[in-house]
Amino acid sequence: MITEIKAISKNKMQVLFDGEPAFTADRRTLRELGITDGAEWDEAGEAGLRARVTRLACRSAMDLLLQRNHSRRQLADKLIRKGFAPEYAEAAVDYVDSYHYLDDTLMAVRFLEGHDRTMSRQEAFYKLKAKGLSSADIEAAFETAGWENWEAAASLIDAKFRDRSLPEGDERERLYRSLIRKGFSASDIRRALSHLEDMRTDIE
């Protein structure tokens, strides 16, 4: 294997293994890894070098996780954007996952709890899919969080009409249309309104 080094900024270098981009690093890191431009590596040296690059990717993955939670896909994508080839990014993700630092279901549960019924199940599902979570992990999170779509609708309606009566007539029809566009079903909205009406009657 032959290593090649290309400068991509003043202190950032891209390293290629046999002409294929492998990772990017600063000059100091390259010195620590013992990488020089045009160096040739035998089989044992290549294996050792690839292992050191994998460890570098793992450290980068841990640094990202210390900043905030990531899904597997988010973490791999960020490592690739940082300059690691997919093989090293995936190896790093597998490494941190083996220590249970990644838990896509738990991440989804925290997302749902953090938004505390401020959106429909459909909207929450699409937002979590956009974060790279699988449908299975998202459904498991809904179950763990005890998500009820009508409760989310009730929360939104109560916030909108907290200081006034619940809507009637044309205003209620507009409310239905608005919530349906957000992903709530008509039955969710009816149950939410019934629940709020009962609550307000009890208070009175």
Characterise the protein shown here.
The chain is mainly alpha-helical and 204 residues long. It folds into 2 domains: 3-98, Orthogonal Bundle (Arc Repressor Mutant, subunit A), CATH 1.10.10; 104-203. Helix 2 (43-67) packs across helix 4 and helix 5 packs across helix 7. The chain is built from 10 helices and 3 strands; from the N terminus they run βββαααααααααα. A 3-stranded antiparallel sheet has the order 1-2-3.
Largest sheet: 3 strands, antiparallel
Helical percentage = 55-70%
* Count, helices: 10
Structural class designation: mainly alpha
Number of domains: 2
Mean pLDDT level: 90
Low-confidence stretches: none
Shape: elongated
Rg calculated over all Cα atoms:
26 Å
What is the strand content?
A: 5-15%
Which strand order spans the largest sheet, edge to edge or round the barrel?
Answer: 1-2-3
The number of distinct β-strands equals 3
Order of helices and strands: EEEHHHHHHHHHH
Q: Kindly, what is the distance between the CA atoms of the first and last residues, rounded to a whole number of angstroms? A: 80 Å
